[in-house]
TrEMBL record, chains A, B:
Domain (Aminoacyl-transfer RNA synthetases class-II family profile): residue spans on this chain: 139-418
Lineage of source species: Bacteria, Bacillati, Actinomycetota, Actinomycetes, Micromonosporales
Span list, region Aspartate: 184-187
Protein name according to UniProt: Aspartate--tRNA(Asp/Asn) ligase
Family per similarity comment: Belongs to the class-II aminoacyl-tRNA synthetase family. Type 2 subfamily.
Length: 418, 418
């Protein structure tokens, strides 16, 4: 018999159907037992009159149940399954390290991560990954609608550029190579091919700090676009993208998403320092400053998002385009979401000579950047882009304190399994 | 003035517009010069009466041209730009290693790959990447429509499993780790969470062979689904997916795509040997056999696709589910496209004890698989899935001989740049 889903039961009242899923919970009462079966869409309640029918059935075993759909206002969804026959597809014969049927997982995070394949079945953990999937789908929909072309770029690179310290080394057929810390250079080169490109892919940071915000591998939602006047064109494209991402999350999940204003408020770095009450000479925003800015944006503009533009050049990577009117400041921006930076972006240099000068000024050798810079010799338009850290975005959206709970199998300083 | 695209020119006849792009070609005639500007969508022809206006302008420089749109039946698209003013956004002042405006790139493949940022601008190279983007989008659309949830899994793993030899080693915070050769184990574990999952991501093979078919990094289109009866449910889902992939490529590009029959013909491995004229005892299909099968499927079934099912267990990975009726053969399949295998899939083992037995039979230790196998202790339904190699798929679809031309920045035994 064709299996149906828990959410389809109400359409089959009075009929015999087959459901299948995991034993979410077993409730053995005096005269009756309830078997709660969990499938991809929800729960089904199966009424079992003869407890011996359950045999040695344990939670998380996989079962197929054929039974009659019966109305019962007390049951979840108003229906339950009666007169069942039960077939066990996979029996669980070891004790579970923790229970899945409570509203929250009681196990510590390390225990959850050790048993990720089990912990991720909990509705709260599942929901975070569904939000990540929806946000990613929205990102792609938004960009495809704005003429961006999807690309796939190398994750193994020949030289460690960007921030040399936090890079993983590889043995590449006996030669040294590295895991890419971002698709930055490749997405810029691909602006020369498609004008507008995006990539969703893993990036790798050999981040030695063990914090609630850092992962050794995370998913980066990257975009880059050519023929911009300056960073404001990039911000406008990002705002449209963010709006579609939120709409997609709202449509596909039960999460209430924040409003994205058609024009997200923007303040310059120097204004931001003043608003946050920071000292005038500061060169970056501390977490407390970002929080203060988040509160200010909500209060003054009714916005949970805020752009901060014009960060000092000294604090931005060498490929950042300076503000032509004020070259100590950049055409770079951050996007704060509820007082936390979740996107970094900006206009990039586009002329070869400017790159040579910027690397010289930074005291960096030209050689490791050769393959990247050659592309700029052959004509690149003014361009810019951004990168969204998916796990941080999801964590911020759902109020998850540790980014490890916003990904399936996190990698960090101490963890490389499962 | 707002820039318009080359494809929009015909809507602006008689008006002054701005286009921007790369100098695709300069044609200097006796009394007039033609400047062909290439943008993301196509070409614009600019008529330049005074040759000196072009100054030292060179091909691939980036320009912005304001001019009047004028009808001319001889011009591409029936319109050209007259009375231009030209602004150079990025000047190219080095000789190009090859010309881009010929119908085919004349440079050797290594030269093209050395200068990938330039070579990829050629319409033929661009087209292959656009087909890859469309196929990928179709893959996701098809699977999202069949209740599959997108996942992101680790590319850094703690133990080298699958095919130990061809694995890249990493220095992971001073400990050994490896680049994932596939998301196989993770997508299986995620069946326990979402029932149906897919992933589009890079996989890594330290493949020591330098062939036209191998890449050290390629893009794998992976799917895995639970609650299947056997591999035929997986094949049905793959067929639907393939059909949407082809429709998406046809809709988004100029490529004529092959028909995907609602039911792709399938032959068993033993039948396949007979059809291909191979010796009865063979344990795998040689390339010549696959080609013969491709011709047979076209002739007998008018299909460019053919499933071969029931490969011998000895030739399939340990997690493959045997055919219950004939346990020396597997519930695994390959999909041939024009006589070449482009998809491998099948039903997997789903019970912990079966995994322990299969590893013992293969003479493999249990320990490296511990993190993976634990998931199977906690209840997994019968399941199966497949992996499509994106670059091979695109190469086969477009008749590209070397898979390196179906990706932007290939990685192989000899190449780790640009």
């Amino acid at each position: 018999m064709q299996r149906i889903l828990s959410t389809q039961l109400a359409q089959h009242v009075g009929k015999t159907v087959t459901v299948a899923g995991w034993v979410h919970r077993l409730r053995l009462l005096k005269s009756v037992a309830f078997l709660i079966v969990r499938d991809a869409e929800g729960l089904s309640q199966v009424v079992v009159k003869e407890a011996k029918m359950l045999g040695t059935l344990t939670e998380e075993s996989v079962v197929e149940v054929s039974a009659t759909v019966t109305r019962n206002e007390q049951a979840p969804g108003g229906v339950e399954l009666t007169g069942p026959s039960i077939r066990v597809l996979s029996a669980v014969d070891v004790p579970l390290p923790f229970e899945l049927h409570r509203p929250a997982l009681s196990a510590s995070l390390p225990t959850q991560l050790d048993h990720a394949a089990l912990a991720l079945r909990h509705p709260v953990r599942r929901a975070a990954l569904k939000v990540a999937a929806a946000a990613t789908a929205g990102f792609r929909t938004a960009l495809s609608g704005q003429r961006f072309v999807e690309i796939q770029t190398p994750k193994i690179v020949g030289s460690s550029t960007e921030s040399g310290a936090d890079v993983f080394g590889i043995d590449y057929f006996g030669r040294p190579a590295y895991l890419a810390q971002s698709p930055q250079f490749y997405k810029q080169l691909m602006v020369g091919v498609f004008e507008r490109v995006f990539e969703v892919g893993p990036v790798f940071r050999a981040e030695p700090s063990d914090t609630a915000r850092h992962l050794a591998q995370y998913t980066s939602l990257d975009a880059e676009m050519g023929f911009v006047a300056d960073h404001r064109d990039v911000m406008a494209a990002l705002t449209r993208t963010l709006s579609v991402m939120m709409a997609t999350v709202a449509a596909r999940t039960r999460v209430t998403t924040p409003k994205v204003l058609p024009e997200i408020p923007a303040v310059s770095f120097t204004e931001a320092l003043r608003i946050a009450g920071a000292a005038e000479g500061e060169e970056d925003l501390a977490p407390a400053h970002e929080r203060a800015l988040g509160e200010w944006a909500l209060r003054e503009h009714d916005s949970e998002f805020l752009y901060v533009t014009g960060y000092p050049m000294r604090k931005r990577p060498f490929y950042t385009h300076p503000d032509p009117a004020s070259p100590a400041y950049s055409n770079g921006f951050d996007l704060l979401f509820r007082g936390l930076e979740i996107v970094t972006g900006g206009q990039r240099l586009h002329r070869y000579d400017d790159y040579v000068a910027a690397l010289a000024a930074a005291g960096e050798p030209l050689e490791p950047y050769r393959g990247y810079l050659d592309g700029f010799r052959y004509g690149m338009p003014p361009h810019g882009g951004w990168a969204i850290g998916l796990e941080r975005f999801v964590a911020r959206l759902l109020g998850i304190a540790n980014v490890r709970e916003a990904t399936a199998f996190p990698r960090d300083l101490h963890r490389v399994t499962p």
